[in-house]
Amino acid sequence: MFSSHGPSVRELAVQGLSSVERGYDLLAPKFDHTPFRTPDRMLDAVEETLAQYEGAFGAGLDVCCGTGAGIGMLSRLCRGRITGVDLSAGMLAQAEHRYGADADRVDFVRADARALPSALAETYDLAVSFGAFGHFLPSERPALFSGIHTALRPGGVFAFPIGAPLPLGSRVWWATTGFDAAMRVRNALWRPPFVMYYRTFPLGPVREDLRAAGFTVETVPLTHFGHRPDGTPHWRLILARRRG
């Protein structure tokens, strides 16, 4: 799963016993050599689907941008300024190093996604996020979605991929269920907590929380990843639009 340039088992253990912020600060220099980075295949599928359904945008926001995997995609979809927001200073340092030559167009802001700075209000036409939602408890989704809603201009779109429910009893279902159970035990016994769960972001409740935050919600199949035996897609793209 990890390349020779990735973190060692010891480094992963130290990260896992840290807070989310500190853990990603430690992991940042090697993060792009782990399977945790959003695959280019997913980024390409989202970019192609957004271009097909929405066309071009003005300014773009990457929420929980990490080392900046989604910034290149936004720079191609958006005509205006691109901003990446993340809590981890270490991850932002890696992103800034990667996109330093584009500083006239790309900037990065260190902030908690649950409390985005007021200076970002009604600034963006497109917001995206990849692979970060497991770091937010269900009770934190309203604050997360409300902040993104505020950052968008009226009519702006918040887009992100979401996977279909895993087949009950499948190998992946057992793996993710076991991981989540282990994390709950870890967080009950160890401080600071490290919030990372795989099965706390189901489509139905997420859709309701988006609507409560002021979005209209549409789902588009990401056909690049095929369909399940019942004909439903393995992955969908959520298009949450700020009303008005």
TrEMBL record:
Positions of the Methyltransferase domain: 61-156
GO MF annotation, one: methyltransferase activity
Residue stretches in coiled coil: none
Record keywords, A-Z: Methyltransferase, Transferase
Name of protein: Methyltransferase
Record-level GO BP terms: methylation
Pfam families: Methyltransf_25
InterPro entries in the cross-refs: Methyltransf_25 (IPR041698), SAM-dependent_MTases_sf (IPR029063)
Signal sequence, start to end: none
